């Protein structure tokens, strides 16, 4: 029987392990933390019984993941829940743009931009499964659906600023800009439309779901599936040097490229070592969890029913703050994401006290305290919010790597999603998962298709490893 070791039990490491075990490989996963899940862990932070997601929280890409959907994870405890409204982007005053799962319902609320929104997302949403077969894997390959990919893919090469000019109303532009800002990139850079268009299309197809019982349910379900297939998981095992790794046919790393370079040292080919050590990390996240009484008093009624709320003002304001953050300057009014997962999953709350998940975009390695800036942004669109706070827990850009070493400098995407790294991964080549060492692969969110709890980076890396194994065994 062939053997494999996977270092790191985030969703991609677990996905890779499941894919290998399903093909008869004897897999052992080594995880430094005491629990699996990586960025999908959850736990109590402020009030006993109040459940907070530690990082990844809302999952439009995971709920539609072809790999996860094929595993029957419901049997292992993973159940999806949807809020009444996917996302709201408030503007100053009482205006807001509202994102529904339905393209038609979203378009109906965007006034004169409704027809343009339907044009951008209608047919692509209907054909999402065909698109996903191409966009959720390495891009340097022959596409399965070339015409459909071209229709979707050409706009993704544009700067988000160019796509925003396609929209005419301030609400629609802000709504798109808030989703595009998930890339942590300046919105005038090439390919900065890609992540926004991908999230919006997947969301219109499958909705912005949350995992019942917290995002931890994703990692726990994958771990349960792995054990069912005969795989093993060892927690509390921190790998820092190649000498700690047993001899196996395959080794996969769910780690940032710099960490892999440190572990493998001069075993790596020189070109790979240079690429991994020069791997670029992006701006950071400054995370604050709140315990709030009675919910957030949003000005706009739709925000009180939305699983996600984006706080950034107009498109122009979002673009300006993302430029500042990327340049290393802390904006006075940072872009803030707010998660109200308890609306879809009420078991996370304790009576009328609810967990509120937030983070702000801040410069890489930011050493200041952004908690008051986050509160001020919420107060801007929900006056009276401060009075409802009964507790808060803060994770700065220096705290985040202690919780998950892949988040270097607070970079929760595991690498800057600039054009080269978004399209090619950590090093040029047709196989972004290969380290150049036979049988050794990278499977983290540093590889295509990038961040999210979808598990596709791990599944793709496992497929590359299995092809190697097949060639070796003849």
UniProtKB/TrEMBL annotation:
Q: Which organism is it from?
A: Streptomyces ochraceiscleroticus
The taxonomy runs: Bacteria, Bacillati, Actinomycetota, Actinomycetes, Kitasatosporales
Checking InterPro entries in the record gives: FAD/NAD-bd_sf
Transmembrane intervals: none
Q: What is this protein called?
A: Phytoene desaturase family protein
């Amino acid at each position: 029987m062939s053997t494999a070791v996977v270092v790191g039990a985030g969703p991609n490491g677990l996905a890779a392990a499941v894919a290998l075990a399903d093909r008869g490989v004897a897999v052992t996963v080594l995880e430094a933390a005491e629990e699996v899940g990586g960025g999908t862990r959850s736990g109590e932070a402020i009030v006993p019984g109040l459940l907070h997601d530690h990082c990844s929280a809302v999952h439009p890409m995971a709920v539609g993941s072809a790999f996860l959907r094929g595993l029957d994870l419901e049997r292992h405890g993973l159940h999806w829940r949807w809020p009444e409204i996917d996302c709201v982007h408030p503007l100053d005053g009482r205006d807001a743009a509202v994102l529904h799962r339905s393209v038609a319902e979203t378009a109906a609320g965007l006034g004169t931009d409704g027809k343009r929104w339907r044009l951008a997302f209608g047919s692509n949403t209907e054909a999402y499964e065909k698109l996903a077969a191409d966009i959720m894997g390495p891009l340097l390959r022959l596409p399965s659906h070339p015409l459909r990919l071209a229709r979707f893919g050409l706009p993704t090469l544009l700067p988000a600023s160019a796509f925003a000019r396609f929209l005419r109303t301030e609400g629609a532009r802000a709504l798109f800009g808030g989703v595009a800002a998930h890339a942590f990139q300046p919105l005038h850079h090439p390919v900065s439309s890609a992540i926004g268009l991908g999230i919006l299309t997947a969301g219109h197809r499958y909705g912005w779901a949350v995992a019942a019982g917290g995002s931890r349910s994703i990692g726990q379900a994958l771990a349960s599936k792995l054990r069912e297939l005969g795989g093993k998981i060892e927690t509390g095992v921190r790998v820092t040097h190649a000498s700690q790794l047993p001899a196996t046919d395959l080794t996969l790393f769910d780690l940032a490229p710099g960490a892999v370079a440190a572990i493998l040292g001069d075993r790596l080919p020189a070109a790979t070592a240079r690429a991994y050590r020069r791997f670029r990390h992006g701006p950071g996240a400054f995370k604050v969890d709140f315990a709030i009484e009675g919910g957030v008093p949003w000005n706009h009624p739709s925000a009180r029913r939305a699983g996600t709320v984006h706080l950034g003002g107009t498109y122009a304001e979002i673009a300006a703050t993302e430029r500042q953050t990327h340049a290393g300057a802390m904006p006075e009014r940072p872009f803030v994401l707010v998660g109200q997962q308890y609306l879809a999953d009420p078991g996370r709350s304790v009576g009328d006290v609810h967990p509120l998940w937030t983070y702000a975009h801040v410069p890489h390695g930011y050493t200041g305290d952004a908690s008051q800036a986050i509160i001020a942004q919420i107060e801007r669109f929900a006056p009276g919010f401060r009075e409802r706070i009964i507790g808060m827990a803060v994770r700065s850009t220096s705290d985040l790597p202690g919780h998950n070493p892949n988040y270097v400098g607070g970079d929760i995407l595991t690498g800057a999603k600039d054009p080269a790294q978004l399209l090619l991964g950590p090093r040029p080549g047709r196989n972004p998962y290969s380290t150049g060492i036979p049988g050794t692969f990278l499977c983290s969110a540093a590889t295509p298709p990038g961040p999210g709890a979808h598990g596709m980076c791990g599944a793709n890396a496992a497929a590359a490893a299995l092809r190697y194994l097949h060639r070796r065994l003849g």
